[in-house]
Amino acid sequence: MTSQPRSLFEKVWDAHVVATRPDGQALLAIDRHFLHEGSFHAFGMIDHAGRKVRRPELTFAVADHYVPSHSRSRPIADPEIANMVTMLEANAGRHGLRHFGLHDPAQGIVHVLAPEQGLTLPGLTIVCGDSHTSTHGAFGALAFGIGATEVSHVLATQTLWQRRPRTMRITVDGVLGPHVTAKDLILAVIAAIGADGAAGHVIEYAGSAIRALSMEGRLTVCNMSIEAGARAGMIAPDDTTFSWIEGRHYAPKGALFDRAVEHWRTLPSDDGAVFDREVTLDAADIAPAVTWGTSPETAVPVTAAVPDPGAEADPVRAGQMRKMLDYMGLAPGMALEDVPIDRVFIGSCTNARLEDLRAAAEVLRGRRAVVPGLVVPGSVPVRRQAEAEGLDRVFIDAGLEWGEPGCSMCVGINGDLVPAGERCASTTNRNFPGRQGPNARTHLMSPAMAAAAAATGRLTDVRKLDVRKLGAS
Amino acid sequence: MEPFVTLTAPAVPLDIANIDTDQLLPARFLKKPRSAGYGNFLFHDERKPGFPLDDPAYAGARVLVSDRNFGCGSSREGAVYALVDGGFRCVVAPSFGDIFAANAAKNGLLTITLPEDAVATLRRQLQEAPGASVTVDLPAQTLTGPDGRALTFAIDLFKKECLVEGLDDVALTLRHQDAIDAFDRTDGAARPWVVPGA
Q1: Hey, is the C-beta of B36 within 8 angstroms of any chain A C-beta?
Q2: Is residue B15 part of a domain?
Q3: CA of B126, closest CA in chain A: separation in Å?
Q4: B98-107 tens-digit pLDDT
Q5: Which residues lie closer than 8 Å to B50 by C-beta, 6 or more apart?
Q6: Is A14 on the interface with B (CB under 8 A)?
């Protein structure tokens, strides 16, 4: 029997279609539903309609967006922020959901916590009312963000109506250079295809440079799929994936794990699978990147200059570039390495895992930061392990603050804000106007690059600093 | 949800690409209940002199005509609440953030995707004749600009049906209850590891 070759996405999609309408909409079964504090609208909707959570055992609530980065021994001072954290706990409690609250030993950013706890597995459909849900595609899951009404729909039915997205394969072959990371790779992808370059598509990342990434790196890549407009990003599961999962708290154990792995090995795209679009990049062409504007698509090598709107033929685009430069306080032609910064932030669902903190600490070891900065680990387990390795001391000795896990200054709703007019070197995912605070200026980059910027007080090519591996003498 | 059939109303042009949902609704307002009046938060931090939404010439606009990748970024449905509570029923752009477009449809906000040059022409016409009206006919899938030209747009049939009829799709889904139950049984046997252990 021969069958049509299928892609990873097609295999996961096909396995979850519960019903199809004549107009092509599919009712998709959902295997994991993650919730954070923003879910209060959705709980309001199901409570108002008198509906219950259909599969509480597949639904997990995580406090991350509003949790404080400092001192968790005292109550949260701002009553509105405190209310967001307690409301999640109350909604989870009333509907019988596992809740990872402020004081839970596994607490963290939902997109860090779920993989860490073995909740994210290959072949699953995963949704969350958060656009960075694309992160979980690193395991070969189909994972995407949804809005409040869709959250209420999943709570009530454990399904979602979806139109089958188109597919795009992005192949990155070759070897990344020294200090060129998964973050630089995904920023290069977004710059190449644009902030809406993958709209309506699910991306599969393939090629030797992707295969060589750790799970942490793969999570960073898939995390920012949404910044290219993609519905989701996926990477085929392999031995790197399986060995990460094995033994984690909620992962299948023993014979069940073996059976799951046997199934997961059938998921990678078949030879001859057809994609609607193909994009290729050469890993050797990717440099440490920074953004100059207010969209992630403005990523360029740190060695570049600020672009000139005068050279842009389209007057509307030129006007948009001028508006971005005005917001960012930059002049055309200026070398990016000459741009001074006011602070750094190392954290977020993009770059707050152990590998990220190690990379930043490697740069900062034995150095002093010349600007203030905040380092926020992605979860309590990441924080503990970082402390066991002495990374916290490296950051504190450099003069940076060492925070408690959460979304923190990436979205700024727990009170961690970049002051108006200040310029922040940030390992986050969005440099939108006002994202880190009203009139805050954000330059996106990797953890090593943010650490280098902290050490020099300006945007810096980390390759030009003398950096030794941790543990080397 | 208020059904959407036809609409004739003033339209406001916004020559900005990549308008993200953080701009539509700054994050600090996300903790507000819907009753707080999300219309007041719409583009809150963009309200500087010269911002088209504050130009009296565009008062009463119910259609927003913008540039590519409108509504990109965060999945916050509050961005749609801000537009709807701010009086908007329709956004026209060359492309939309997928999640924003899905959220819009659930709240009776029509998103119309048209080619980049058609949208640019429409914005220019609205800049030249501030306060001009456009007409949207959803059943016919046409948008008629100030110049009287009718542009045809494509829309997902399911989305169109939900908008025209103002349907709640949980009720629609529950018609498939038997199929969902059957899926759970079959899949539970085939992939028993999906339900977390420990």
Answers
A1: no
A2: yes
A3: 15
A4: 999 999 999 9
A5: none
A6: no
Q: Which amino acid is at A27?
A: L
CATH number for the domain that contains residue B34:
3.20.19.10
Query: What percent of chain B lies above the pLDDT cut of 70?
Result: 99
pLDDT tens-digit readout, A54-85: 999 999 999 999 999 998 989 999 999 999 99
Is some CB atom of chain A closer than 8 A to the CB atom of B89? no
β-pair type (A17-20, A125-128): unpaired
CB contact under 8 A, A438 and B26: yes
Q: Where are the beta strands (DSSP E) in A125-244?
A: 125-128, 142-145, 159-163, 166-173, 201-206, 232-235
Q: How many domains does chain B have?
A: 1
Can you tell me the distance from the alpha carbon of A99 to that of A95, in angstroms, rounded to the nearest whole number?
11
Range of the domain at B156: 6-167
* Rounded distance between C-alpha atoms, residue A423 and residue A425, angstroms: 7
Asked if the structure places residue B177 within a domain, the reply is no
Reported confidence tier of residue B44, pLDDT bands at 50, 70, 90 = very high
pLDDT of A467 reads 80
Q: Give rounded-to-5 percent helix, strand, coil for chain B.
A: 45, 15, 40
A8-278 and A336-464 share one fold? yes
- Superfamily in which the A8-278 domain is placed by CATH: Aconitase, domain 3 (3.30.499.10)
The angle formed by the CA atoms of residues B138, B4 and A130, to the nearest 5 degrees, is 105
A428 neighbors A410 (Cβ within 8 angstroms): yes
| Banded pLDDT at B198 (limits 50, 70, 90) | low
Cβ atoms of A315 and A306 closer than 8 Å: no
Q: Which tens digits make up the pLDDT trace of B82-123? A: 999 999 999 999 999 999 999 999 999 999 999 999 999 999
| pLDDT of res. A469 | 61
| Mutation to test the B interface, candidates A11, A119, A149, A242, most B Cβ within 10 Å | A149
Q: Give the model's pLDDT for residue A472.
A: 45
Low-confidence ranges of chain A (pLDDT < 50): 1, 471-473
B195 located within any domain: no
Q: How far apart are CA A65 and CA A84, in angstroms?
A: 9
For chains A and B, CB pairs below 8 A equal: 186
**Nearest-by-Cβ selection for A159 from B17, B156, B173:** B173
How much is the ipTM here? Answer: 0.96
Write down the architecture of domain A336-464 according to CATH: 2-Layer Sandwich (3.30)
Q: Rounded to a whole number, what is the distance in Å from the CA of A210 to chain B's nearest CA?
A: 24
Q: Is B176 a member of any domain? A: no
Q: Taking the CB of residue A338, how many other CB atoms lie within 10 A of it?
A: 10
Hey, what amino acid is at A463? R
**In chain A, which residue's Cα lies nearest the Cα of B158?**
A23
Q: Return the C-alpha torsion angle B133, B137, B138, B140, nearest 10.
A: -150
Chain B residues 122-141 with a CB less than 8 Å from chain A = none
CB contact under 8 A, A57 and B195: yes
The confidence score (pLDDT) of residue B49 equals 86
Domain-by-domain residue ranges, chain A? Answer: 8-278, 336-464
Find which of B35, B45, B98 to mutate to test the A interface (most A CBs within 10 Å of its CB): B98
